[in-house]
Design goal:
The chain is 42% helix and 14% strand. Helix 3 packs across helix 9, helix 9 runs antiparallel to helix 11 and helix 9 runs parallel beside helix 18.
């Protein structure tokens, strides 16, 4: 233990790198326990607020640099142009997002007793996860609660308090081992083990109960998801556009036992603007049976202030070739669909910035209602990662369609983590989520997190899924959002920082 303290920042860095293995697709939960416990042990022995901040920052830097390293794969689509930027992606992710562990670490330093430091660290970590969901447009990727997605039972509590409730359970279970490292007595070990088992058992039992009331309804509504796995290098190739479009049409028209009511293509699936391309829109309509619809992602251009602005859109096309509805993506990807502070960028980065266009924003979630069919809302790409922001709560749809293109990231952790985010949104809102991706992962996720008709990463194929999902009332989380769990964390934070003399737990090495 003395060696760990002697090289505290190095230990914190490796602890952060280890902890990221708790996320998909690895799901090595013991790695998260060791990593968080090592960090908290270091924080208990920090001699100043500055040192605590530095330890948290080193942990967070590695946690996010390694956990988000898949983002750099997008630069390898054209490695001769952008490959040299790959290390800078790791540094940027770790450098900025590391602050979201540095500040909780600093706050914990000013708590009084060891158990209060633990409460402070856990509560502050969740509060800063929540802040990460909206600051600078937000990026709530890999929330700590996603580490429990290896078990469908354990994540059902998201219907009560959202993913942040799961995050509180994960951080508290994983970091509490630091108290024992600091005071290795048997009674402390028993108490800590009891807390970990108690929290996980409570989550599992609630999940078991919630899944026990799951049921299906019989109907003849079939959804067809089309996943062509077109390589990203060919997706926008001028010579391949027509071939790509015909591939979608051919797969969509494949025979089916029951004609699908919805044929769903992924994000920017159509290389042509079907809202203005009458010929190809009619070709798309020819694959549709009576009363069915094609839902396809594409780029559209919308008039604004005398200009035509590109939008990342989802079009609903009926059997007659009419545009029945059009949804425009609202939550745009920084550095992917727009460049923040573009005018202030240094000259050396401008050639790269000029490659990225400035997309227009939509007007937020909208419900699309079609005759004699369940209503739905759209979420394009990473819009699905934002808790309590994916639907209009006052106009709740019957299910959600998530179009995405994860082809940028290859065979990496990114698509698996994106799928987990979609699963948590389904459970949080009590809504079925239908996900169509260019190269996977595609499929249907029920309101209870069950996966159906899954097309694996890089698999080429179609998936016909009967929509046997009941329309459920809003969950508790859907009704009240993040307010209750954030308020609870603020209460825990208050209990952590106030001065308490009578309660003495894990006090042997208290400063």
């Amino acid at each position: 233990m003395n060696m760990l303290l002697k090289y505290g920042k190095t230990t914190a860095f490796f602890a952060g790198a280890l902890s990221h293995f708790g996320f998909a697709p690895s799901y090595i939960f013991p790695a998260a326990i060791i990593g968080f416990s090592a960090l908290f042990f270091l924080l208990l022995n920090a001699k100043s607020g500055k040192k605590a901040f530095g330890l948290g920052y080193c942990f967070g830097f590695a946690h996010f640099a390694f956990g988000l390293s898949w983002i750099g794969n997008a630069l390898l689509i054209e490695p001769d142009k952008f490959g040299w930027l790959y290390p800078f992606v790791l540094i940027a992710c770790g450098g900025f997002f590391g602050l979201f562990y540095a500040f909780p670490a600093l706050i914990s330093y000013y708590a009084n007793k060891p158990w209060q430091k633990w409460l402070s660290f856990c509560a502050a970590t969740i509060i800063f996860e929540w802040i990460r969901s909206f600051i600078f447009t937000g990026f709530p990727w890999n929330l700590s609660g996603y580490m429990l997605a290896f078990s469908n039972n354990l994540i059902q509590a998201a219907s009560l308090g959202g993913t942040y409730l799961l995050s509180l359970a994960v951080v508290s279970c994983c970091s509490i081992g630091g108290l024992w490292f600091n005071d290795r007595r048997l009674k402390n070990f028993i108490m800590i083990l009891g807390i970990i088992i108690g929290e996980l058992a409570a989550l599992w039992l609630f999940g078991w109960w919630r899944l026990s009331v799951d049921h299906e309804v019989k109907n003849d509504i079939v959804l067809r998801i089309v996943q062509p796995s077109i390589p990203q290098t060919l997706k926008w190739n001028a010579e391949a556009k027509e071939s790509n479009f015909q591939t979608y049409l051919r797969m969509s028209a494949a025979p089916a036992q029951i004609k699908p009511k919805f044929i769903i293509w992924g994000e920017t699936a159509s290389p042509f603007m079907l809202d203005s391309d009458d010929t190809r829109r009619q070709q798309a309509a020819e694959i549709l049976a009576a009363g069915s619809y094609l839902i396809a992602g594409m780029i559209t251009y919308q008039p604004k202030d005398g200009w035509y602005v590109p939008h990342n859109s989802m079009a609903v096309i009926d059997e007659h070739g009419n545009i029945a509805a059009l949804y425009h993506k609202t939550h745009l990807v920084p550095f992917g669909e727009y460049i923040p502070f573009r005018q202030y960028l240094p000259d050396f980065i401008r050639p790269i910035a000029n490659v990225i266009g400035t997309f227009g924003q939509g007007n937020g979630p909208q419900k699309i209602a079609l005759p004699k069919l369940p209503s739905f809302s759209g979420a394009i790409c990473y819009e699905i990662i934002f808790p309590h922001q994916i639907i209009k709560q006052s106009d709740r749809p019957d299910f959600l369609i998530n179009l995405t293109n994860d082809g940028w990231y290859g065979d990496s952790a990114g698509p698996y983590q994106h799928w987990v985010a979609a699963k948590l949104r389904a459970i949080e809102e009590g809504l079925t989520v239908v996900r169509a991706a260019n190269n996977g992962i595609s499929g249907l996720i029920t309101a209870f997190g069950k996966e159906k008709g899954v097309l694996k990463l890089n698999e080429t194929g179609i998936s016909d899924i009967r929509f046997n999902q009941p329309i459920l009332p809003p969950t508790i989380y859907s009704r009240f959002g993040n307010g209750p769990i954030i308020t609870f964390c603020l209460i825990l934070l208050f209990l952590g920082v106030i001065k308490i003399e009578k309660i003495s737990l894990f006090s042997q090495k208290e400063k």
